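the three lines:
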Amino acid sequence: MNTALLLAQTGGEVTTGEAVAFWILGPLALAGGLGMLFSRNAVHSALWLVLTMLGLGVMYMVQQAPFLGFVQIIVYTGAIMMLFLFVLMMVGRDASDSVVEVLRGQRFAAAVFGLGFGVLMVTALARALTDVPARGLVEANTTNGGNVGNIGRAVFTDYVFPFELTSALLITAALGAMVLAFVDRRHTERKTQREMVEMRLRGEHDRPSPLPGPGVFATANSVATPALLPDGSVAPESVSELIEATSRKTLESDVAEVAGTVPGPDAHALTGKEGDR
Amino acid sequence: MTSTYLAAELGPVDGIAQYAWLLVALPLLGAAILLIGGRRTDRWGHLLGSATVIAAFGYGLALFFSVLGLDPEQRTREVSLFSWIPVEALKVDFGLRLDPLSVTFVLLITGVGSLIHIYSIGYMSHDENRRKFFGHLNLFVGAMLILVLGNSFVTLYLGWEGVGLASYLLISFWQHKPSAAEAAKKAFLMNRVGDIGLAVAIFLMFANLGTTQYTEVFERAGELSGGVVLAIALMLLLGACGKSGQFPLQAWLPDAMEGPTPVSALIHAATMVTAGVYLIARSNPIYDLTPDGRLVVTIIGALTLLIGCVIGCAYDDFKKVLAYSTVSQIGYMVLAVGLGPFGYALGIMHLLTHGFFKAGLFLGAGSVMHGMNDEGDIRRMGGLARKMPITFVTWGLGYLALIGFPFLSGYYSKDAIIEAAFGQEGWRGWVFGGAAVFGAALTAFYMTRLMLLVFFGEKRWENLKSADGRAYDPHESPKSMTVPMIILAFGSVFAGFLLSNGGLLSGWLAPSLGKLQVAEHGVIPHAVVPLLTVALSALGALVAWLIFGRKSVRVPVERPAASWPVRAARADLYTNALNDWLVVKPSLLLTRAFLVVDNKGVDGIVTGTATVLGGGSSVLRRTQTGFVRSYALSMLGGSVLVIAAMLVVRFA
Amino acid sequence: MLLAQVEQVQVPDLDFPAIAPILIVLGAACVSVLFEAFLPRSARWAAQFGLSVLTLVGAGAALLAYLGDAPATGVTTLAGALAVDKPALFLWATLLILGLGSVFLMADRRVEPGGAFAADAAIRPGTIQDRAQATTVMQTEVFPLALFSLGGMMVFTASNDLLTMFIALEVLSLPLYLMCGLARRRRLISQEAAVKYFLLGAFASAFFLYGLALLYGYAGSIKLSAIAAAAGGSDRSDTLLFAGIGLLVVGLLFKAAVGPFHTWSPDVYQGAPTPVTAFMGACTKVAAFGGILRVFSVAFEATSWEWRGVLWGVAIVSMLIGAILGLTQTDIKRMVAYSSVAHAGFLLIGSIALTDEGRAATLFYLLTYGFTTLSVFAVISLVRDANGEATQISSWAGLAKRSPVVAGIFTVLLLALAGIPFTSGFVGKFVVFSAALADGMAPLVVIALLASAVAAFFYLRIIVLMYMREPEEDGPTVSLPGVPTTITIALGVAVTILLGVFPSAVLDWSVVGAFVS
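prediction for all of em together
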């Protein structure tokens, strides 16, 4: 890029090319935003957002901010959104929330306030920004190392503190991710099979062999059926302690159901009148 | 005397006066130790409680003598303690005002307070909460001293609320008695009405003068317009009526007798109930400016003294008769201070003598009831003079002092008030003087009735059993109870003469209250008034003897049916009903609006509904759905409104 | 080449003594993260607690050392990003001491065995592993998070341009979002609170950022002084300015939990672990109002005529919402949340009185309110039953019979919140209202008095409940606090009473004069 070209692009007026680019990219970016909001599928939403970001990136470039434009595309669209998509795919893209609105008047009020906010902002901005002379970035792009140089200068002089402070945010975010996602399994380590066997044989366990399975399918299909030992006697360990410990009373309804002595579903229950008796 | 005299230069604070804060700190420290220390202090709590008050009395005496050594012009002094909120133009300073008036009260409160603390050691010896009782008593003494020592109306208000709280706690001390809880509630409610009056008065001062310090208010009271002064005077009077049991707020005082007897003696006879008189006397520069305000004070005083006397004739409860007697005697004091410069000092004098003999009478009543299984019905007594000689003698001296027997305390203080009332010009002299002297006759009547029914005549208790089924066995009380009674009896006999001899008290109080003026031309000659009073009192006593005292008269144990005036008197002249209708109902309605929310809490679930606020709250509460999207919506709504309002304000 | 002609970069000035407290806190936060990474689990609690206390004390010492020879009008440093002036120093001191109290509460492992925070927040609530960790020692990441948050708050109150302010806002918020979700008991409600706070916080940040953009468009700079200069004399259309102020203010009011932007606070106060609630209730309020004071006084003073009416309305809404909704709460933490909404309304009154008195009054109020709130939550954390804290108000019935000391302390604190004389709460309200009166806001003061009367009712209701009622059979018990909690409660109550009785010294300090820009 040479000086003449740079100078030609500046000077307080919007060129036709820029205007054409804006009127193509602007609606696209807006459509991307709306698409992100209204699509049901999370992956689609993310892709719509990519469209918006790309549109913005190109617009930055058209407006003589090439560095910002490329950063927008490379970092946001390229890195962050793609990472986002990875996560979405990993978590499961079909995980969607219920879209039935249970709050009365929520959607209506949201629409009213949303539109109200939009109207307020658009009229305010339109009122403020019509007939404002364009300033351009000629000075910033030509002196002191040009576009990138000036951004670097700003970051390391005027905005050095906010810039450094951002690191606190990043550390916090990393720490937060660790806290919320990382389970420390070291202190709950499970024993290997070999260790278990050795432990059992050393007598550090109730019995050296595993518990016998219950007699399911031998005579009945209930886990409460004990296994039989070779001599025909009952092996008490084969029935889970839980079943033994549960009093018969609490199981009565289950027993009745299995025995088929429970009355079937009552059709009148649906009307609610019979059930009131 | 004009107010400019009162606002004169304050004397320097030096010597013993620098430590005046001890007066307040000692009892409060005692209260703090006893109430925070809990059961650990049970064994020595009563001793500590008495010691702090006695120490305060000792200091008070020393202070008194140091003040005596000063020139009268230098006797008014202020000890500034600290500046509370020193924001520019809005200074609230705390300090103590040491002048003859406050020092007098200090002596009364700590002196009578000490005696009653000692008396309570014996009286409450069987009560397992004796330590708590002493804690509350100490709290009361501390608050009362703040009330009289404060150098601004705000400090006074602080003490005012403090004594109210202590009084509430002590009336309901025997919580197991529902009547005690009820009485405490009643006292609380009626006192609130009075407190609102005081608060409004303070607010009026603050709004109009920007200060509540006595010195500045009194100095600049003249700047206020007549209407404001009158309003302040009437509001202060309302406050005084609430605290001192004056019409129309007198009904709580007899009910307050549900508390232990020492409480009745200390708080509801000698000290707290006289706070209203103190308030009016202290605000004398304001009342000096408004004759109309003073007239209202006088009318209230006269009315109350008559109401108290009439109702006192009809009651059969020992302490309630004494309570109505208190109401009526305070009526005398209010009448006196309502007379302005003619009566401020007389009111205070009667307050002091009354403090002695009424405390003595109450302690005597307590002693009688102590010996009679806590029986309070005088129709079940009789002929006790032999059984309780010391009580009888001391009580008898107090009785004579109260009815104005010549040359005892009451004779000097009450007759002076009657004289001053007659000293007014025109119809006022006749009306107020007449009311006062008629009241004296009635006082003699009902007190004689009390005397005869309790100490003389047939021993009606012999064949009766008390409510708990025990037979009556009247006996003299222990030393710790009789000694204070004896001391108070001395006061009942000699205080009046000592204080009035040569205008001693009025001269002493002059720096605070102005010089006592004596009316030149009364409606009846000065010399006649004492004779008239004594004669009428004697007549009242005679009538009482004719009805109750002669051997041939048998007093029935049950209350006989009676004619309309007696029934009216027994029903408190229907003032209770009036109060209910005028004060209690509306305030209850108001509080009930809030209480409905609280009543839900009575059921264990603190959910308020059904009141305006509670209802509004419930409706609003539904906006708090727990859904983020509805929260976000309300934020968005708020933002739209804020931004729209911003733009509208700018471009409209 | 043209681009080769490069000027020497001017290194921005750096006033180390002035910003030492911030650097100490943020630096220690980083060290604390390293502790997490390299220390064995058993040694972490002691190390983290010690480091945090040391940090806060050290930062306080640095602050005091600087205070001695600080220029009276304050300085700006780091190319004007930070303004260290008397108000900022007062706020820093307040934040440090309140932060110290909060750290004490977080470190307590006796009230809740093992600490108020989950041992492993990543384990799903309700699983077997979750039950197994019920009594193991807590996660210590809260300490670095708290330090980061505190550092963010300190920067927030001193930031002199909107960008620094925005980043500080995020630095203070992000750790808070995280800490909200770390409760040991009732973990689902805690995590729900964290998500809610995060979502709404992000929403509010968007408003702030939008406002920032509009203001930049208006003034061509994000520096507060430049915005003030532009608003003072400029022929640009000020639609941008007012829309920007509106949006910016929404973001700030959200952080301060001023109604109607308060909706998050009851849910979050209730769900968050109580030490974190205490931290939020005390420190976040200080930081948010510190920022509000600075922005209003420095950047928008010239336009105060326009925005003041709007903020009158906001203050009224906030006071009414807090007072009325507080009446029907059944959970004590929610009740305190609504009380804080009402208090935010009172504070806003002080903040929009752009006088020296108003500023001093607001600072004083923040200090007193912070201490009282801290102790209130500390006491709440003590009253427990089998399920952890007994926050149902009804279960507090008859507490005075069970534990007279705790009931007495709580009574003092509630009276302070209600603004009863001889507590710090009264003095705070008194100075704020009198400053507002002096600045001609009498109607607002009348409404504020009405609101505080209504609000007093629900504080008194709890006092009545504690004293006048018989305790339930299976009611909560008061657990014995550990040393750190005891210190915090004692400090809070002492300050509440001392500032109620002898406020003059601190009132004098709080007269700090103007902001520098």
